[in-house]
Design brief:
This protein is an alpha/beta fold. Helix content is 24%, strand content 28%.
Length: 268
Amino acid sequence: MDKLLKLAVFQMDTRWESSAENCRRVAEWVDREAGEADLIVLPEMFATGFSMEPERIAQEMEGEAVSFLRELAMRTGKAIITSVAIRDHIRRTEAETGFFNRLFFVAPDGVWLTYNKRHLFRMGGEHERYAPGSERRLIVHYKGFRICPMICYDLRFPVFSRNRKDYDVLVYVASWPEARRYAWSTLLRARAIENQAYVVGCNRCGTDPGNSYSGDSAVLDFLGQPLAEAVPGREEMIHATLSLDELEGFRKRFPAHLDADDFTLSEE
């Protein structure tokens, strides 16, 4: 029997540095629009926006945003992917900030897995405000699919995103400004085509004190063709259903992955 994964991707107009308001609005949208989705995808730093003031906005792991995600997943029976600005007291070196842009995969039973953003957006000063992740990328097994979730600027680095025959769905949560929307849309398609995988790009819309965001959220198939696309600039939740049989059938018919170059990626 074909394994299917139903997605609800929320192109959200994030309220700036207002965790309680953003949590409330996400709950309303999920209750009203998520339907039968198995997996909900929210933008990067859904609770606050892409703020470079972690001393003010970062939360503990037991804080409001993470607790909200856990409770929402358990209440609705849906998994959730997003990121949160986290204050972590465990630092590897004295030079590190103790703040992380941390991705969460929260399962319907409330158990979560995390990944700390590896590629910090230098042009926005993120590398000066947050510590980079050094762990291996995260692969989640859910509903028969292998999912690799990443964060925004990670999209620009194809080596880190390269499919090593270990995932079926590549997910990017983002706060990607409208000024670079062409790069966002182009790179999402490139990642789908070169990795022979479904790609989900969930970007915010609206404005913050420094940027405007058109969203351009999309779910792409393994050919880079859209299964669902959000209207640029409009807050909305888009839906798509992924088929594992269709993906595996394509990989058998066109096994380009068998000719991929082998390499080792430094985890330093």
